[in-house]
Amino acid sequence: MTPRRSPLTGLALGELGFTALLVGVWALGWPRGFYDRFPGIGAWVAGDGPFNEHLVRDVGGLNLSLAALTCWAWRRPEQVPAPVVGWVTLVAAVPHLLYHAGHLQTLASHAERLSSLAGLLGTVVCAAVLVVPARPQRRRRGARDHASARKTDLKTAAGRPVARQADR
Q: What is the CA radius of gyration of the chain?
């Protein structure tokens, strides 16, 4: 049975997967362009030290692996539960956020500092959404569990439940 996914979980998985895919493809495929122009409205990476192609390509590869895990969880939630993606993302995103919060001087403008922190915080929030357990759905008054209703509805003339093929 495939576990049900809330719309908020689907939205968080979509955001995390899309962002990881974008960063992964760009950093792995065009490391110099990623270093010079990420995120496309400034130069968030270039202000933090000299270009290192190996480091940028590794960031790309790691983001692609995270995108693959996220997409797998979205398509096959019975194989990769969403909290696994949330915890894996938090392991990377929280230290990343803390590093940039402590090195805001590497960014050129106040707008770049705010947008950088907002983007990084957004990733942490999306990941946190995935690890928080969903509240159980409340049953309507008088509604019965479908499975138990089926079992109790099938009875012999003597009033004993009928064993179904699956129960034998």
A: 24
Q: Residue 124 is encoded by which pair of tokens?
A: 């942490």
- Torsion over CA of 56, 62, 63 and 65, rounded to 10 degrees? 150
Of the candidates 94, 120, 97, 28, the residue with the CA atom closest to the CA atom of residue 65:
28
Q: Does the pLDDT of residue 93 top 80, yes or no?
A: yes
Measured over the CA atoms of residue 111, residue 18, residue 128 and residue 11, the dihedral's sign is: positive
Amino acid at 137: Q
pLDDT in tens, 35-81: 999 998 888 999 889 999 999 999 999 999 999 999 999 999 999 99
**pTM of the prediction?**
0.76
31 has pLDDT over 60: yes
